[in-house]
Write a structure and sequence with these properties.
The protein has 188 residues and is of the alpha+beta class. The chain has helices at 6-12, 19-29, 43-63, 114-117, 119-133, 142-154, 158-161; strands spanning 82-89, 92-100, 106-112, 170-175, 181-187.
Length: 188
């Protein structure tokens, strides 16, 4: 099992790259008590440090007098019919594989997004939440918030990318060993 995202990025970097983000990174590292910060609940904290870095870099870039120079602009066309790219996003590692025709129209695409990378870790997190918060056939409405938090820690973009506005729509079904439904709770 592996996970991708801001925890990994901050655990392996030497510095964030801007003054305030660097100070916050020092505080963040203390959570690891001399080692890596591994708790999934710190994904959001790591993202906030990356957002702070981005805001500081935006301010720095906007103050740069060369930002309006002609050399900043570039135009490109089709120079290859196949391309693979990989980038880090708030969700984690994104891998995109595109094929285009000579006019630049996409003919084939394969995406490996963070949800796929983090799937096993998300499943384990939800299993652990269920073990902790379901006793017998007693299942409370509050578990929906716990499960949503477990998912969003790994993939904050999932609800937006699936057009879930507000609270993430969820259904939890509690099944008996024979597969019959004991209880169901849902929202959204």
């Amino acid at each position: 099992m592996y996970r991708v995202g801001p925890l990994g990025r901050l655990n392996v970097c030497d510095y964030a790259g801007t003054p305030r983000a660097d100070r916050e990174l020092e505080q963040f590292r203390r959570l690891g008590k001399g080692g890596a910060v591994t708790s999934g609940f710190h994904f959001h904290y790591a993202r906030l440090i990356e957002i702070l870095f981005a805001l500081e870099k935006i301010e720095e870039t906007l103050k740069d007098k060369d930002i309006l120079d002609d050399w900043v602009r570039a135009e490109g066309g089709v120079n290859r019919l196949k391309g693979v790219g990989m980038t880090e996003a708030p969700r984690g590692t994104l891998i995109h594989d595109y094929t285009v025709d000579r006019n630049g129209l996409i003919t084939d695409v394969n995406l490996v997004v963070s949800t796929g990378h983090n799937n096993m870790a998300m499943n384990r997190t939800i299993t652990n939440i269920a073990k902790q918060y379901i006793k017998g056939d007693n299942i409370s409405e509050g578990i929906l918030n716990r499960v949503e938090h477990g998912i969003r820690a790994f993939d904050p973009c999932l609800s937006c990318s699936t057009h879930a506005v507000g609270k993430m729509p969820l259904t939890i079904e509690l099944l008996a060993p024979d597969g019959s439904m004991l209880k169901e709770i849902s929202r959204g």
